[in-house]
Amino acid sequence: MSGAVDFSEQTPIRLFVSYAHEDDRQLHFIDPFVGKLKYFVKAKSGRYLDVFLDREGIGWGVDWRDEIASSIESALVFIPMVSAAYLESPACREEFLAFEASAAARKVEELLLPVLPLNTPLVTSSSPDPIAKTVERLQYRSLEAGILEGGFDSPKWAALLSGISDDLLAVLGRAESRLFSQEVASSGSSRSVPGPQVPSGGVGIFRPDHQNSEGNADGEDSDELGILDQVVSLEQDLSGLTNSVEAMKPAIEALGAAVQLAPGMETLHTAKDWQVWSLNLARKLAEPAVEIQTQGLKLLDHAKRLDKSFSSLRSLSNGQSDVASVAELGPVLDSLLSEFAGIDDMSGDMRGLLDSFKEAEVLSAALRKSLRPARAGLRAVQDALRIINGWNPPAGREPIGET
């Protein structure tokens, strides 16, 4: 038939499935998930899924950024299998944050498709965990009904995977069109560039719109920040990050002081003594713990902004012959990293301090509740360090705060 799309010529869809291995050891769901998803994507679009799975202990860092920046014909898709174990895994968190930053820089956040193996109250808009909040905002899919009620050969499981394949293909079509328009705009071409067609359902292959969301597919000036603007933005966020670190230090000191001023546990002889001691200590810990969470989340937000600014700066300098090359930005990055060297020490101090409370927390719900914000703040600091370590440290410099 004339004009028909030859699906055999389509490039594969690169899919990364990020998951906690403990979840799969218990539920055995990853292989059935990938197998059925591959079938539905191929049946509905004619395109193959090229799936990467086993990454235990591997952090993607800069590799993720390079992949998504260069992936135009085959847009990169990321499916995190979010659970309590996932949110506690440093490797999973690093993967999520790295892809989230790359997708945000390319304006294709929809390529992050969260899935929950089991429903969990940890994923809410009010969660202190920024990853959990992002997952809730992106409207995740849940596999619980298929795993627990239907089984992997059931119609319920097939219906769930069919719906996820529809989501994947729909967002991929929109993202590929946007990425193609960005590529046309960045090339400075004012001519119409032919591209593959998008079927009426928005699935699979793509065609650039006449004008993209930035209004510059026809060669108009872009509203993107220039190099000097990016440097100013970078400096502002560096200042904000430094301020958050400085604001967190007295809160950590107050947390430690509260323990030092409290009577020792060896003086407690009755259950009533324990109860009074824990309630008094919980009250003293509550305010600094909340401040640690507040400043930790601010620190993480500034780290994300710095990451985006630096990525944009490198991208802009790549396309300019009269400004510093990427290699010449090394001293800038080296200076940034030196600013953050003390964050790891602070993170270690917080971790040691919070570990010292674990024995008492087992006995006291009040203490557990009062320290929960501090633990969320520590996790945010550790996430910020993972982002910083994705900045490709200069030769000879060790990554900061490896955890």
Describe this structure in words.
The chain has 13 helices and five strands. The chain has a three-stranded parallel sheet with strand order 2-1-3, with helices on both faces. Strands 4-5 form a two-stranded parallel ribbon. The longest helix has 48 residues, at 271-318. The protein has helices at 21-27, 30-45, 62-70, 84-88, 90-105, 130-137, 144-150, 155-187, 227-261, 271-318, 330-355, 358-363, 365-389; strands at residues 13-18, 49-52, 77-80, 115-116, 141-142. It folds into two domains: 7-187, Rossmann fold (3-Layer(aba) Sandwich), CATH 3.40.50.2300; 227-389, Glutathione S-transferase Yfyf (Class Pi), Chain A, domain 2. The protein is mainly alpha-helical and 403 residues long. The radius of gyration is 24 Å and the shape is flat. It is 60% helix and 4% strand.
What are the defining features of this structure?
two-stranded parallel ribbon, 403 residues, disordered N terminus, 3-stranded parallel beta sheet, 2 domains, mainly alpha, Glutathione S-transferase Yfyf (Class Pi), Chain A, domain 2, single chain
